[in-house]
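Researcher: Structure for this, please.
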Amino acid sequence: MRKEDCEYYHDDDKIINGESLNLDMTLEQLSNEIKPGETLILDVGNNYFNQNDELYNNLVLKGYEVRKTVRNGRNQLIVRQNIQLL
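Model: Predicted structure, token format:
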């Protein structure tokens, strides 16, 4: 998916490095960084250990709107806080 094709993807979005194998710490960092109505890009990278799917599942279960994308060969999750659940 191209950046300009995604309604959630904007030039001013924050990017968080999600390559850490410590999924709990990555999820905590994301929940501390994201604000209502804000979109963050979680850059998972090469996804050698399938952390992309695990992060996706955890974020969806926590009520975030999440889209999987690949940009420049790197796996990314576009994460938006669901305002309706606040």
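Researcher: Any notable elements?
Model: The radius of gyration is 12 Å. The longest strand covers residues 64-71.
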